[in-house]
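Target protein
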Amino acid sequence: MSSTRPFSPGDRGPEADGASGASEGGAAVPSESSASPQVRRLSFDGESGVVPLARDFARQALYAWGWLPAATADQRAAAEDVLLVVSELVTNACLHAEGPDALWIACDRKVIRIEVSDRGTGQPAPRTPHRAGRPGGHGMFIVQRLCLDWGVVRTPGASGKTVWAELGAPA
């Protein structure tokens, strides 16, 4: 399913007071409150090798949030899905949008939300028809298949966009 909603149904969106537990410059800071989602932000400003950097950042967050090390095969698969979606969204920003600006990842007890912002004007969409076995063009198809929902947010009057995706937490 794809959507242009900025937030999934029932999501209250970003914190009104700006207290997201996020920081600039690649440092990760978890949220203080256990009632609110745990949030981490990575800025890609001046960075190279952004896809492996993003995967490592996401992997560290999954360890901090108890998704890793995984106790079961289902939990391991859920963590691998998160890392794959991070890779696909960051790769798409590299290939189609002049590179990513930032990665934002948040987790509550039920859902993990991944956001990748960039300065690109394009509209991500799975290629149709999807042609399995042919190289390239699988990124958003993979995101669509693995995620509960995904979409694109544009800020009026500003360049770029944020592509977001949500995955369910492991049982």
Notes: The CA atoms of residues 51 and 90 lie 6 Å apart. The first strand starts at residue 38 and ends at 43. The chain has a mean pLDDT of 80. The first helix runs from residue 50 to 64.
